[in-house]
Amino acid sequence: MVEVVRERWGGRPYFIFAALGSAIGLGNLWRFPYLTYEYGGGAFLIPWIIGLIVLGIPWMIVEFGMGRYFQSSAPGVFGGIGKKWEWLGWWPVWCAFGITTYYTVVMAWTLRYIGAAATTAWGVGEAGATGAAPFFWEQVLHISSGPEVLGAPVGALVGCLAIVWAVIFLVTFKGIKVIGPVSKYVMITAWTFLVILVIRGLTLPGAAQGLNFYLAPDFSGLGNMEVWFAAFSQIAFTLSLGMAGMYAYGSFIAKKGDISNNAFITSFGNCATSFFAGFAVFSIVGFIMQSLSIPVGEVAAKSVGLAFITWPVAISMMPGANSFFGIIFFLCLFLLGLSSAYFLAYGGVISPLMDKFGISRIKATTIVCVIAFLIGIIFTTEGGIYWGPDILDRAVSFYGLLLTGALACIVIGWGFPASKLRKYVNETSDFKIGAWFDWLIKIVVPAALLFVVIYGGFVQDIATPYGGYPLWVASMIWVILAVTLGLSFWLQKVKTRAPKEVSRK
Ligand code: PHE
After folding, report:
1. How far does the centroid of ligand 1 lie from the alpha carbon of residue 352, in Å?
2. What's the CATH number for 3-503?
3. What does the longest C-alpha to C-alpha distance in the chain come to?
4. pTM tops 0.90
5. Where are the domains of the chain?
6. Distance 21 CA to ligand 1 centre (A)
């Protein structure tokens, strides 16, 4: 008899480290702390934890469980429910692929900054405080006046991007037997760096004031829809769900392996990391407020501005070991990004290609890494930041993630259905989940995701073009969504070929 042998995690800890690595990414550091500060401080933890429990964990159980049930990545899972649904497994694959192309460019910036931090190239002391922003925009990005002006690729960034993809290739081309152990070391190192950064931050003058902005609770906003939108959208994003990859990671779990408890551990570990990272971020914000005598509103506390301007400012104002803390910070960012990036590449794209076309791992890995690198060069151009981390990000990591996630839960919840999944998961899990799970998957999770995408997406982006961009630029969001959806239907029509890796029994 010919049996297809699927690769397996070398043990439960490897799976958990890999899943944690995929969830913990740049967003834990540059998105969560800012949202907490912006939407009610400590009070924000309430909607966030509710989102985690009713939305995040059940959804993660779905992705792990369905991947293991069908022993396949996302397209195989949906094709397994019914051939007519296979497209719904491909759509998030395209989104995952899209994310890798610009997420890796942000990682390339962090590599560039590891070099710059070695000499604190943006300046030390007051000079650094004023020099950090122009250094980033002009010297590192060579930023153009707008998305219409693409300009040439920036050589240093293309070089860094090539290194990033070489690393991803090396981690993924042997599959999960390398991804598992690498994830363990990546995560332990990243957490160690985070601890160093938190300790450094908390011992700087002004730290307490910054933490006050982070956590002082304001309960008055809890009746406000926007706060719930922020909490739910963060939960959806931070757990790396809706990006195809978790189905594949789940499919590599051993036949008798646990699902529910792994989902709990991964979700809580991720969220604890976010909460902890907030101490590193806001102690630094407080330090800058005090050192430069400026109000909190003038310190960029999120996203690119936080990582590439606020941190460099703080580093140049530190009393000593500036380069050391600079290197630690950017290495930490790089590692956080790395484990999410190879997750997207391997679980999100490479595994689906292997499962569908029966091609070898080395072939699939080479194709994906080379093509994603070439596309990524577009985002290293002078106008690249507008297109990659902004427009494409909005299309795939906001709309794509939420729409495919909502549809997936509806199809699985009603079509598979949820009760069958629950019984299957309960057979091997450390603890049993109750019938409440079915209703969360059938109704609550899709409703919450659709609320986020309608309230925080369509309503705004249809009324005014996204990001204040010209209409044709903002419209690319709809073009990207339509094209990736079309390509997914096309792939559904392509014949599936049996994988090569078989063993004879
Ligand atoms: N969860 C990652 C973060 O918080 C982002 C991400 C989303 C990564 C989807 C992969 C897939 O940064």
Report:
1. 19
2. 1.20.1740.10
3. 74
4. yes
5. 3-503
6. 9
